[in-house]
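Our example pasted here:


***
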Amino acid sequence: MNTPKVAVIMGSDSDFEIVKKCLIALEKFDIAYDVQVISAHRNPQKIFEYASTAEERGIEVIIGAAGKAAHLPGVIAGITPLPVIGIPIQTSFQGGLDSLLSIVQMPSGVPVATVAVNGAENAGILAAQMLSIKYPEIRAKMKAFKIQLNDEVVAKNEKVQEIL
């Protein structure tokens, strides 16, 4: 397999059911990834080690998924110069608004691109778009994907028009 370009880190294995949508999106664009469960709160040395060495391992984008306090993506962004995408995981408290605000409300100088609560598929697509700046083969797949999205909407409209 190719060297991973994207690291996908979740704060808990309970996040996997959501995160796998991100992995499916990355696979759609043939992007190799590394997946880890690392808690910003329970093993902070591990997240520091992983994030601080990601670039030298060939990682170009890091995706962090977390719920509740959801510090993981922000901690990663504070350690690495690489772009970080946060996936807020829905919780029983406020439907995930707590996770969303924990990720999106970063201090100046430490940005985290944040997708919707449970928006793992979009995190994978956003990572692909970021990588498509550098990799023409990913850019070509992204263009084809956008055409496919358009064609799906056109087909749905045609079905509606037939009913009317």
User: Anything to note?
Assistant: The chain has one domain: 6-135. The domain at 6-135 is CATH 3.40.50.1970 (Rossmann fold). Residues 136-163 form the longest helix (28 residues). The first strand starts at residue 6 and ends at 10.
